[in-house]
Amino acid sequence: MPLVVVGVAIALLLLTPHRTLAQEVVRYPIPNSTFPIALAVETPPNAALVHLSGQVPPVVDETAPESSIAVYGDTKTQTIGVLEKIQAILQSMDMTMGDVVKMQAFLVGDPSNGGAMDFAGFMEGYTQFFGTEEQPNLPSRSTMQVAGLVDPGWLVEIEVMAARP
Fold it and tell me: Which residues lie across from 106 on neighbouring strands?
């Protein structure tokens, strides 16, 4: 009798899919949606998770008044600049944007947009890095409007988590 129980247990173990045995990141798409984020991302137990601190935009116009939005550009420009910084940091760690599994984006309301965040501008920058033919991996993501960031000229700050399986 114990041999039968062991045999059944082994058969069930072999027939049951185990995510813990998977060695890849699993990205769950949003059902019936083409929006370029994942509903959820599952990392395998052996993955090293790398948490990058929030990155802010680089200066794009040194002649503009200090701490002005013009110094850093509009939301799209700032988003691209921030994501290029994140990409460079990841590359220095032998990782890519395809390894990003979680993103939090903090957007300040743009005075030229009536004080509302420029979500369309953010997405124009974001979609240059995620959901492309060259880089189809989508992170889970939260995007929120915040009252302000450390520098009054910053409209964008982004932090990410990347997984190295």
Answer: 144, 157
Burial call 95-109: b when 16+ CB within 10 Å, e when fewer: bebbbbbbbbbbbbb
Spatial distance between the Cα atoms of 97 and 139, rounded to a whole number of angstroms:
9
Residue 69: closest CA among 103, 125, 107: 107
Q: Is 44 exposed, middle or buried (0-12, 13-18, 19+ CB in 10 A)?
A: middle
State the residue for tokens 């984020």: 37
CA 40 – CA 31 distance, rounded (Å): 11
Give all domains of the chain, ordered by start, each with its CATH number: 2-164 (3.30.1330.40)
What CA–CA distance (Å, rounded) separates 135 from 155? 25
Q: Determine contact, residues 17/5, Cβ cutoff 8 Å.
A: no
pTM for the model: 0.85
Q: What ranges make up the beta strands (E) of 14-99?
A: 26-29, 38-42, 48-55
* Element holding 3 (H helix, E strand): helix 2-15
Half-sphere exposure of 132 (CA within 13 A, CB side): 12
What averages of pLDDT result for each successive group of 10 residues across the chain (165 residues)?
50 43 83 96 95 98 97 98 98 98 98 96 98 96 98 98 93
